[in-house]
Write a structure and sequence with these properties.
EC 3.1.1.31, 6-phosphogluconolactonase activity, 6-phosphogluconolactonase, Rossmann fold, 9 strands, six-stranded parallel β-sheet, Glc/Gal-6P_isomerase
């Protein structure tokens, strides 16, 4: 993908005329990231958000290049509800994506629902899941995902990291909990910014005109400090924005032509 308009660590913005073109190109990008990761270490570690993101991954379902048996999937954040609850990110990802592809169930890592009444235990348990996958293999202080896929809310939040919340300044924990989400449900766990920012590739996916004002604020005025603007990968990680023209209509930040 071209980076000619940007310094190496700056976000790369690609905008598509419509959602179908975004879905197709996002699938091609994920397939390439998967191939490079498997070639390098025999597996592909991914963290997924909920919201509208699972629907925008539909281009992966019939892609013969996707080696689902090599995927290890975690969640960027999760609502503290049973896995079959309508608010569960895991449920959305399973219904829209994982139920339609041959991914081994044991390689998808939801929260431990026996711990829903103890948020500290729940977040510690999820951190231990990450430690099992990453701690022995990476010398870094934080896990290094091959790919983290993020969405963005109208208020500029990403994961369950909301404007003005104490968790924006969390520097040590891998997984944190909150009981006071401004968006229901109030109880959630979330990866922290240090974990997100250590990923090899981070992709925001934002489509639709309702995202236009927020996307302009994040890309054109990042110092204003909206949570999505605090996603700044540690070198050599790279941040991409996959958007459509309706979402970027007000953005001055330079676009990059998509090419693999």
């Amino acid at each position: 993908m071209a980076t000619a308009h940007h310094p190496p660590s700056a976000p790369i913005l690609v905008s598509f005329t419509n959602t179908d073109a975004l879905v197709e190109s996002l699938a091609a990008f994920v397939a390439k990231a998967q191939r490079e990761s498997i070639d390098k270490k025999g597996k592909f570690t991914v963290a997924l958000s909920g919201g509208s993101l699972p629907k925008l991954l539909r281009g992966l379902i019939d892609d013969p290049s996707i080696k689902w048996n090599k995927w290890h999937v975690y969640y960027v954040d999760e609502r503290v509800v049973p896995l079959d609850h309508a608010d569960s990110n895991h449920r959305a990802c399973v219904e829209i994506l994982f139920s339609k592809v041959p991914i081994p169930q044991e390689q998808i890592h939801p929260i431990d629902t026996t711990l829903l009444d103890d948020l500290e235990e729940l977040s510690d348990s999820y951190e231990k899941e990450l430690i099992k996958e990453f701690a022995q293999k990476d010398s870094a202080r934080f896990p290094i995902f091959d790919l983290i896929l993020l969405g963005m809310g109208p208020d500029g939040h990403t994961a369950s990291l909301f404007p003005g919340h104490d968790l924006l300044s969390e520097e040590d924990r891998w997984v944190a909990y909150l009981e006071d989400s401004p968006k229901p449900p109030p109880k959630r766990i979330t990866l922290t910014f240090p974990v997100i920012n250590h990923a090899s590739r981070i992709v925001f996916v934002a489509a639709g005109g309702e995202k236009a004002d927020t996307l302009k604020a994040v890309l054109d005025d990042p110092e204003a400090g909206l949570p999505a603007a605090r996603v700044k990968p540690v070198f050599p990680g790279q941040l991409y924005w996959f958007t459509d023209d309706a979402a970027t209509v007000k953005v001055s930040y330079p676009r990059t032509e998509f090419r693999l």
